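Side project, low priority. Logging it here so it doesn't get lost.
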Amino acid sequence: MTSQYVTAIVPVRALHDGKTRLAGVLSLPRRAALVRSMLERVLAALRGAQRIQRIIVVTPDEHLPLPAGVARLLDQSVGLNPAIELAISEVSRRSLAREGQPGQRASDAVLIIPADAPQVSSYDIDTLIKQAENFDVAVVPDRHGRGTNGLWLRLPTAIPMQFGADSAEAHMAAARRLGVRVTGIEVAGLSHDVDEPADLGAEPMPEELARLLADEDELAPLLLRASSLAQEGFGQRVSYSRKVFIPLTHWCRDVCHYCTFAAPPRKGDTPFMTIEQVLEIARQGAEAGCDEALFTLGDKPELRYPAARRALADMGFASTLDYLAYCAQRVFMETGLLPHLNPGVMSTPEIARLREVSVSMGIMMESTAERLSERGGPHHRSPDKEPRRRLATLEAAGELAVPFTTGILIGIGETRLERIETLLAIRRSHLRHGDHHPELSRQAGDAYGVCP
């Protein structure tokens, strides 16, 4: 973690003035909604970044809604560059005023991020700062290599703002003339901004249009579009995770009628794997070249089965999640495998506790259709499958900036519209909290505070 105090600056024009080059394809209200949506995603990424200490939005719009903790700097300058220079001056002025004041920290650097980079993630921001912190200036070019989609400046700075055509080279040249340390850094999430109609591929489909897909009955065009999107996003690459599965317990307090993992207690069964069994599987996985230990388990079986409570008490644990935390820590310490945990519904304190011993967690959202929990539905008598509880887990993970996986189930009695509604609910949570990606390496444990 960097010891530098970094302030992020995000310039935003008034909503009714933005993105005029999109006027031919988007109405004024739609353009304003686009600007607001992209700004929300950029701010979510910045708020989730561990290396950003302060965020300032410089804008002429005093009514622009901003989340808590984000400062507003009102500016009536004509043009982007004067607005950014005003913000830098304000940060520098405050830094000078704070020098020598007990408990006050001056900004060491600023990171200028555009409001129209909807693909940027918290991980992108932290990675950028980590690469830039030994330089006085770092320029992040757009995907064409010409514009500037991110600018790191160590304070104080004399670099003039030159955002506009060919600004990447202009900023680099200005830094070289001043004789300061400068570098260019490519950041995937900052390569794509939205200025022209062709750039709108970065804009998520509006919810009202997404719901209309429920009535599409021609499969071939949908498959063609899905294939095209996959090719645009990932090309021909096929990725996989080298993981070993550790089924800590098959007991579960839920009774989902389609589940093939959970099993009710049988005579002679033991509720949980022993720590010796857990470590043996982990060691075999490590020897086979695995990087990850994926813990799978039923949802809090002790809340339903007395035998599970007794087994936990005999081992000295108050809950399944306490035992899971112990096992994950032992696996990491003794094998080096990175724990990923799928323990089901969790509270905020439970997620915070498990974050200390894992690089990532997850829960399947499955479906937001409450009717599936009614009598006769697949989730009847399964309290942990209530949509509000699973959404609350997803939200808590986002608020804590925990790398978190999720998804939907298909074929459990849901309609196509219910699938779309579930995906939209997941997307809303994602847009509120941004991306949080664990580093896929053995050093990720230190980076994410695994196992104190």
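Brief comment: The chain is about 35% helix and 15% strand.
Revisit when time allows.
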